[in-house]
Amino acid sequence: MSTATMAYRGPVFIGGLEARARAARDAVGGQAVSVAFKDRYGWLTRHPILSGGDALPSETRKEVAARIAAIPGIGGISWARTSTRAGPTEALHCQGDVERILETRTIRFTESSARLDPASGRLLDEVTRALKPCVGSIIAVTGHTDKGGNPDVNKALSLARAEAVRWALIGRGIPADGLRATGVGAEKPIAGLDPTDPANRRIEFSVIVSAPVKPTPIDTPGPG
Q1: Could you give phi then psi for residue 209, rounded to 5 degrees?
Q2: Which residues contact 26 (CB under 8 A, 6 or more apart)?
Q3: Which single residue of 175, 177, 195, 222 has CA 20 to 30 Å from 208?
Q4: Where in the chain is the domain with CATH 3.30.1340?
Q5: For residue 208, which phi and psi values (nearest 5 degrees)?
Q6: Spelled out in words, what is the top-level CATH class assigned to the domain 3-86?
Q7: Among 73, 83, 70, 68, which residue's Cα sits nearest to residue 36?
Q8: All CATH 3.30.1330.60 domain ranges in the chain, comma separated
Q9: How big is the CA angle at 118 (ends 128 and 185), to the nearest 5 degrees?
Q10: Strand 202-208 versus strand 138-144 pairing type
Q11: In CATH, which of 3.40.190.10, 2.40.37.20, 3.30.1330.60, 3.40.1190.10 is domain 94-208?
Q12: pLDDT tens profile 116-138
């Protein structure tokens, strides 16, 4: 694992994110919501899973999610299913599986374009296999760039690349209606990295367990 990867996935960094997430949660009265920064295998993750707080007003739960998702360094949040909303408790695992696949490898494109590098085909096959158990959920595909160049061009390129990955997943059997592509350009660099570092050019995936009416990384699941 590279030094850069360790910098934004290490225990100290994740511990800081966890402390800020709890403070953000408590500030809006969401103490009943649990925030987990580990996946089902016990691996640290920048994509926390929220659970509990079923007795809280829906607006409070949404505000908790929004506040946590806005913390710099957090890659996206998801709600776990709970017994009162969607059957037995089910920890989200696809997120962690995909993160581990992409820890040391990157989905690549030809220079300054949204055309997928053929060498990324096998990597996309692995990502598809990891995501298939979560078909039925909303899967957000987000494109990122570094800060070099024109911001508008970067944002357009990041969206085009996310769309290219979305279509690649559709071609591999992931249902189109569960995939959402977005591009944020250089707005969310990897925490601890210079915004101009090429490592910021990446595709990230966020899995939302239960599909809401307006699917975004901060929505709460609908009634079970």
Answers
A1: -60, -50
A2: none
A3: 195
A4: 3-86
A5: -105, 120
A6: alpha beta
A7: 68
A8: 94-208
A9: 75
A10: antiparallel
A11: 3.30.1330.60
A12: 999 999 999 999 998 888 877 78
| Count of all residues that appear for the chain in the document | 224
pTM of the model: 0.59
CB atoms within 10 A of CB 76: 21
- Give the E-state strand segments of 16-174 in sequence order: 33-38, 44-52, 78-79, 138-144
| Distance from the Cα of residue 151 to its chain's centroid | 22
pLDDT tens, 151-207?
A: 999 999 999 999 999 999 999 999 998 899 999 999 989 888 899 998 889 999 988
What gap in Å lies between CA 127 and CA 114, rounded to an integer?
18
**What letters, b where the CB count within 10 A reaches 16 and e where it falls short, cover 4-34?**
eeeebbeeebbeebbebbbebbeebebeebe
**Residue 206 is inside which H or E element, if any?**
strand 202-208
